[in-house]
Amino acid sequence: MYIKREKVIKSHDDWRRQNEVRKLRIIMTVVAVFLGISVAAGVVLALMNVKNTADQMKKRVSAYMTSSVSSADDGLPEYDDSLNLLLVNSSQKIPDDYRPQLTEYGSVQVDARIVPALRRMMEAAEAAGCPLTITSGYVDEQTQNQKFQAEVKRLMTEQKLSRIRAEDKAQATVGEGGYTDSQTGLSVCFTAKGAEKSQFRQTAQYRWLQRYAADYGFILRYPDDPSAADGINSKTKHIGDSSCYRYVGRDNALKMREYSMSLEEYVQYLSSRG
After folding, report:
1. How many domains does the chain have?
2. What's the pLDDT score for residue 66?
3. Strand 241-247 and strand 187-191: pairing?
4. 144 domain residue, yes or no
5. How far from chain centre, in Å, is Cα 246?
6. What pLDDT does residue 196 have?
């Protein structure tokens, strides 16, 4: 009887152990399934986030490229090169019969014919995160002369220059009335918010313009000329200015960018070809 009782007890204990093992296996299976579902859900969410991020980046890049690059059939007006390549500098006066078609754009006046391209370019720059602010546009000859004479007087007083030397230096920074691109209405100068004019070259706005301005028909009017003395452009007698851009028409601007030519060089190049 004792032996049988021991066997029964042992059998009962074995059953309990087996039951606990089964329960443990069930719990482990449930935990494993739960963990598997959690991991799978995490992977799915991660993939969805990656896809959403990729889609957003794709949309941003697409919008950026669409807004930054002008196509030939984008509806921008085209003008004759008698306007596009009008050349005015320190040695070439604006024609007496030239009359810009002035209109207000923002806080300045410009020739109305450049407004469609100018507006398109500024909208594209803003869409690319490089908003541009126009600091100056058309300046009439009388006002320009007043600015020129004021600069001459300042140079004579502060730097003790002779009038001839002061006028020569003022022509390179301000310009005499009738001998600057400001009288054409085809030029505008930009700034970046919070940046001084002298700092414009270091801004994202300047880099954007260097890459895309030609797509809208604009070129840097006074690029630096390393070969010229004192940093003054030998053809215009104007110190390089990274903030002033001039409308020349899209085809001309693209060629000038390709050939790395200033307006003076490009006009001379076309003239040499007959």
Report:
1. 2
2. 41
3. antiparallel
4. no
5. 16
6. 79
Report the C-alpha gap between 216 and 49 in whole angstroms: 37
- Which residue blocks in 69-85 are alpha helix, DSSP H? 81-84
Asked whether residue 50 falls in the same domain as residue 108, the answer is no
With contact defined as beta carbons under 8 Å apart, do 152 and 159 qualify? Answer: no
Say if residue 54 is in the same domain as residue 109.
no
Domain assignment present for 161: no
CB neighbours of 261 closer than 8 A, spacing ≥ 6? Answer: 255, 269
pLDDT of residue 24: 67
Q: Look up residue 90 and give its two tokens.
A: 């320190």
Q: Name the token pair of 168.
A: 């020569």
The whole-number pLDDT of residue 48 equals 60
Q: Report if residue 167 sits inside a domain.
A: no
- Domain carrying residue 189: 79-139+180-272
Give every strand in the sheet of 218-222, ordered side by side: 133-136, 187-191, 241-247, 218-222
Query: Which of 68, 94, 118 is the last residue in one of the domains?
Result: 68
DSSP label at 232?
B
Tokens representing 167 are: 């006028």
Q: Are residues 32 and 103 in the same domain?
A: no
Residues 186 and 248 in one domain: yes
Question: Mean pLDDT in runs of 10 for the chain (274 residues)?
Answer: 50 63 70 66 56 49 42 73 95 94 95 97 97 95 92 93 91 88 95 83 95 97 64 61 94 96 95 86
